[in-house]
Design a protein that fits this description.
Blueprint: H1 2-13, E1 23-29, H2 38-41, E2 47-53, E3 56-63, E4 67-68, H3 73-78, E5 90-96, E6 100-101, E7 107-108, E8 111-119, E9 134-140, H4 152-160, E10 169-174, E11 184-189, E12 192-203, E13 206-217
Parallel strand pairs: 4-12
Antiparallel strand pairs: 1-2, 2-3, 3-5, 5-8, 6-7, 8-9, 9-10, 10-13, 11-12, 12-13
Length: about 220
């Protein structure tokens, strides 16, 4: 009886497992990292998207103040998509305070990186490997020092340096057509979480906005 009482007391006073930290997103002023080249750094918004796991920062993303897109008035009226962004465009930069696992289950070292837009080819071993083919390729900030477009082949080579040449490092993009532009974390199922945000873009005829939803947790299922 004494043993049973001790066990019952422990169960009542000490939870069996601690609550898991919650992934959240917020926008706050964070000066872009000085590890970024000045031509890149000067384009970035100080209002950064910060992803947290409990109180710990998972990643900080600085988007360009204005992202260039190729779209006419009719396309803007119908709603912009990622496909209006030319491949190789500098989207922004990010910082991982510690090792991060991307959607392809690749471990990316802590550090500062640039983000450039790319579309996954629908051929060979790429077919059906992701729910959406649009990505930001993660590139070493120390080697990406220009605001200009980077040709796709060179971009893939540059991003692959993060993983010692094995495969580009990726930040998977999901569609974000929400009207409210809220900054929040959305559960896509199978442990995949995305953070949503609206960003300013520059079109052929003026300015508009485009919704982004970036993968901040989770990996692909085999």
């Amino acid at each position: 009886m004494r043993f049973a009482f001790v066990v019952l007391f422990a169960l009542l006073h000490f939870p069996a497992t601690a609550a898991e930290p919650k992934i959240t997103a917020k926008v706050e002023k964070v000066e872009p990292s000085m590890k970024l080249a000045e031509p890149v750094r000067k384009l970035l918004d100080e209002q950064a998207l910060v992803i947290l796991d409990g109180e710990a920062v998972v990643m900080t993303i600085w988007f360009r103040t204005e992202i260039p897109v190729k779209a006419n008035e009719e396309q803007v009226k119908n709603g912009l998509t990622y496909r209006e962004i030319p491949e190789g465009t500098l989207i922004g930069a990010l910082e991982f305070p510690k090792t991060f696992t991307d959607y392809r289950k690749q471990e990316l070292p802590a550090g500062v990186y640039t983000l450039r837009f790319a579309v996954q080819p629908d051929i060979g071993d790429h077919t059906g490997t992701t729910p959406h083919p649009e990505f930001c390729l993660i590139c070493p900030a120390s080697e990406d020092k220009t605001e200009e477009l980077i040709e796709k082949k060179k971009l893939i080579e540059l991003s692959s340096k993060v993983n010692e040449g094995r495969h580009p490092a990726v930040l998977l993009l999901w569609p974000n057509n929400a009207k409210d532009g809220a900054v929040k974390v959305v559960d896509k199922g199978n442990g995949v979480l995305v953070a949503t945000i609206k960003r300013s873009v520059v079109t052929d005829d003026g300015k508009s906005t485009l919704g982004f939803a970036v993968t901040v947790a989770g990996v692909r299922k085999e």
